[in-house]
Write a structure and sequence with these properties.
The protein is 38% helix and 16% strand. It has 15 helices and 17 strands. The strands form 3 sheets. An 8-stranded mixed beta sheet has the order 4-3-2-5-1-6-7-8, sandwiched between helices. A 6-stranded mixed beta sheet has the order 12-13-17-14-15-16, sandwiched between helices. This is Dihydrofolate synthase/folylpolyglutamate synthase.
Length: 435
């Protein structure tokens, strides 16, 4: 175990719960450190259920193409904790991370604080010490009581598509979940909304009015993003843009790209069109319809097989992923075999439903290192009840070898999905971690 990992392990033990929403502990520690969260670059604060990471990746790519220096805070990580903190476009170095963690640990002096809270404070400390033109700050869970929600004057707040998730913390009522996400809205700060269902949109609009946000820009009303003749068309009050399709696959990425463009055009009205176009082509976001073309796991598969990876884990993500796979099937037909692992806080039946008739079969697997994963046998039963042939495997390697030995023809399309934690294990085992 290296030094950073040892410190992070100690921080896990500072609070008996992994999740305990609230701002008191974060605010107290930040105050002892001299309030670094009040000395951050212009910040775009991003909440939502699906698409936060992709939308943030688009914003970073476009802003950097315009020559901006960009910090990013995101969670969870896939392989290494460093992925959560980008300083000026690069993952935080070991030295800088260790220094920040040790300073937070010293000042906190053993007081109860969750792992996410103290590491978020460390991120704020780092961001305050390194100049940048923009900080893209992703909410961890919810919004109103999330540790990131200590930012007083964001340059803008963004809400990506909202769906049911983390109901144990945010409730089961979709409008209530929307209000929790809208807790990031701030007086006079512009708010940008991805297209939402009517009831969610109304709840978000009501919250924006009560807070007194700056201009409210609503996807599907104030801006549009759609495909036409193999191009992405974006239109808002500043005009119409005819762009290449984004590098990230799936129709849902048209919305994420549009949300990113709408947000950046509010914060940087002079952002060149060429930067937006370049950013669309340069964007990279691992484990979101990511094709793995090489690596140790890829070598276990039949010749010419396609191996895809996606970390989406709720029913809305399942629908988006199934739609993307259906588009691939239409363009280049191949039998689809799925390998799926999920946490016991998720809705596997809702996730599997859109794959009926699309997936030839599903092999369920455990999630390495997780005690909260659904047992593969039980998960396979749910898949079968959803109308998809399924069986359980004891490991990811076993599942891949099982497919590799079947002499499948034509060469199959294999999708590993259902959990970001499983996706991280895949990238690590494949020898292709995020860079």
């Amino acid at each position: 175990m290296d030094k950073a990992e040892a410190i992070l392990e100690r921080m896990i033990a500072l609070h008996p719960k992994s999740i305990d929403l609230g701002l008191e502990r974060v605010t107290a520690l930040l105050n002892k450190l001299g309030d670094p969260h009040l000395a951050l670059p212009p910040t775009i604060h991003v909440a939502g259920t699906n698409g936060k990471g992709s939308t943030s990746a688009f914003m970073r790519s476009m802003a950097e193409a315009a020559g901006k220096v960009v910090h990013v805070y995101a969670s969870p990580h896939l392989v290494h904790f460093h992925e959560r903190i980008r300083l000026a476009g690069r993952y935080v170095s070991d030295e800088a991370l260790i220094d920040a963690l040790l300073e937070c640990e010293r000042v906190n002096d053993g007081n109860p604080i969750t792992f996410f809270e103290i590491t978020t404070v460390a991120a704020f400390l780092l961001f305050s010490q390194h100049p940048a033109d923009l900080l893209i700050l992703e909410v961890g869970l919810g919004g109103r009581l999330d540790a990131t929600n200590v930012i007083k004057k964001p340059a803008a707040t963004v809400v990506t598509p909202i769906a049911h998730d983390h109901e144990g913390f945010l409730g089961s009522e979709i409008t209530g979940i929307a209000r929790e996400k809208a807790g990031i809205f701030k007086s006079s700060a512009p708010a940008i909304l991805a297209p939402q269902s009517d009831d969610v949109r109304e709840a978000l609009e009501q919250k924006a009015r009560s807070v007194g946000t700056g201009p409210l820009s609503i996807g599907g009303q104030d801006w549009l993003s759609y495909e036409e003749h193999g191009r992405l068309i974006f239109q808002d009050e500043f005009g119409l843009m005819d762009l290449p399709l984004p590098r990230l696959g799936g129709r849902h990425q048209l919305i994420n790209a549009g949300t990113a463009i709408a947000s950046l055009r509010v914060v940087f009205p002079d952002l060149p069109d060429r930067a937006i176009e370049q950013g669309m082509g340069d964007v990279n976001w691992p484990a979101r319809m990511q094709r793995l073309n090489e690596g140790k796991l890829h070598a276990l598969l039949p010749k010419d097989a396609e191996l895809w990876l996606d970390g989406g884990h709720n029913p809305q993500a399942g629908h988006a992923l199934a739609s993307a796979l259906a588009d691939l099937e239409e363009k280049a037909p191949r039998p689809l075999h799925m390998i799926v692992g999920m946490l016991n806080t998720k809705d596997p039946q809702g996730y599997f439903a859109p794959f009926k008739g699309l997936a030839k079969d599903i092999i369920t697997v455990p999630i390495p290192g997780s005690i909260a994963a659904i047992d593969p046998v039980a998960l396979a039963q749910v898949a079968q009840e959803s109308g998809i042939p399924a069986s359980a495997a004891a490991s990811l390697d076993e599942a891949l070898k099982r497919l590799g030995l079947q002499n499948l023809k034509p060469a199959p399309r294999i999708l590993i999905a259902g959990s970001l934690y499983l996706a991280g294990a895949v990238l690590s085992a494949n020898g292709t971690p995020p860079t």
